[in-house]
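> forwarded from #structure-qc
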């Protein structure tokens, strides 16, 4: 990218990442089963585990997957939250669950609203929380909006906190938001698509204090960390939710009698079947730097 390009977040070119992307293309494989991408599947598993450790989750049984971008990672988080609290939605649809509402900052990424529309909540049920002059969520307004929704007969489900907003670069107060989520038993997601890279900084990690209390986190290495597009991870603290939410038991792909541990197969955790190998360029850059 041009050295004076200051608009969108993605620019520049890392030569190690470029080599990884080129080699990935020569392999031309898919990530849905271990048998067709064994090395890449193991790389992804190890890297996702390390990312969860960096977040601060002590539970080694968390989960995650690389997705086509932060918008899809955020969508995964809402799907996981809905399945966690209302698993019947998978078979019976939204008609079988109460009127659910989602909460997010007025400065959050538009993908939260888009996910609300795509998943059947409706954009009117994505409630925007006021921010202060620095672009951070006002926790008191969040709690007030939760109580208001409950009084109207809605069921609060999910709160999105942003770690690095698109315009202000603001970091929402995760600790205070987590307190509210625990008080009302809500799923807390942290959209750290842009700011997640600061978790690896001794100097700036404090901006994400409390992220270890989240139920899920979006982290895009293709932003602050400079990995070539696309490279986005959805990380979930509880193992099994992604699989339970998305599994369709396609016997012609995910046979249970294979000659290896079928838990290495990732296809049933994803909403896709064909899934691009996004891990190799990231793995090489991490090892080299």
């Amino acid at each position: 990218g041009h050295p004076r390009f200051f608009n969108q977040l993605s620019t520049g070119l890392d030569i190690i990442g470029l080599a990884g992307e080129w080699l990935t293309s020569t392999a031309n494989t898919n990530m849905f089963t271990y048998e067709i991408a064994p090395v890449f599947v193991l790389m992804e598993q190890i890297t996702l585990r390390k990312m969860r450790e960096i977040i601060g989750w002590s539970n080694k049984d968390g989960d995650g997957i690389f997705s086509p971008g932060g918008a899809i990672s955020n969508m995964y988080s809402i799907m996981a939250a809905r399945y966690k609290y209302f698993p019947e939605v998978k078979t019976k649809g939204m008609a079988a669950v109460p009127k659910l509402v989602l909460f997010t900052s007025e400065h959050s990424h538009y993908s939260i609203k888009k996910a609300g529309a795509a998943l059947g909540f409706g954009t009117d049920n994505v409630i925007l929380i006021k921010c202060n002059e620095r672009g951070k969520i006002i926790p008191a307004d969040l709690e007030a909006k939760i109580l208001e929704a409950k009084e109207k007969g809605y069921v609060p489900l999910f709160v999105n906190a942003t770690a690095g907003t698109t315009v202000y670069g603001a970091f929402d107060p995760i600790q205070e938001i987590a307190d509210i989520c625990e008080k009302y038993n809500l799923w807390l997601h942290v959209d750290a698509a842009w700011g997640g890279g600061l978790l690896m900084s001794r100097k700036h990690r404090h901006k994400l204090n409390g992220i270890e209390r989240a139920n899920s986190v979006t982290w895009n290495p293709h932003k602050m960390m400079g990995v070539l597009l696309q490279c986005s991870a959805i990380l979930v603290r509880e193992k099994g939710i992604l699989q339970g939410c998305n599994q369709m038991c396609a016997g012609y792909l995910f046979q249970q009698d294979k000659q290896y541990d079928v838990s290495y197969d990732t296809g049933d955790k994803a909403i896709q079947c064909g899934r691009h190998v996004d891990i190799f360029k990231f793995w090489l850059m991490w090892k080299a730097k």
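QC bot note: Residues 1-57+247-289 form one domain. The two ends are 20 Å apart (CA to CA).
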